[in-house]
Specification:
Length: 136
């Protein structure tokens, strides 16, 4: 399996896990890879992907970090943190699933939540997860 295939498998698995978790939690929060036009109140974005190959060129074994960004507009930062909790339920200590790939359980390695932006109602959070992936 090519390195790019492992990266894409991890990105897709993270996306599906987040989408399923927000649907199940009924958060009305779209999950996206890029900013959707006219999304104003809230969204979760699968953001930066970084990886290190700990295997070989012909048999990559990747340590992948995935940044998940959450944006919420409203009167209470607690709502942002609750949405970030849904992200964590979807990913932290969860073994992701993708055809042809073996994942170690994802691990939360960092997170942050901003204060209100200059509009007084937009809050942003960032979470970084580490995932180890190799071909099955």
């Amino acid at each position: 399996m090519k390195l790019a295939d492992l990266v894409e498998a991890a990105r897709g698995a993270v996306f599906r896990a987040l989408e399923a978790a927000h649907t199940a939690a009924n958060t009305a929060t779209p999950v996206c890879d890029h900013l959707l036009q006219d999304v104003r109140r809230r969204f979760v974005k699968v953001d930066d992907l970084d990886w290190t190959n700990e295997g070989s060129k012909s048999e990559p074994a990747l340590r992948i970090t995935v940044d998940v960004v959450t944006v919420y507009q409203g009167g209470d930062r607690a709502e942002l943190i609750a949405l970030m909790g849904v992200n964590d339920d979807a990913l932290h200590d969860v073994t992701l699933v993708a055809d042809g790939v073996i994942f170690a359980p994802a691990e939360l390695i960092a997170g942050s939540a901003t204060g209100a932006a200059s509009d007084g109602k937009t809050y942003a959070g960032a979470q970084t997860y580490e995932i180890f992936a190799e071909a099955a």
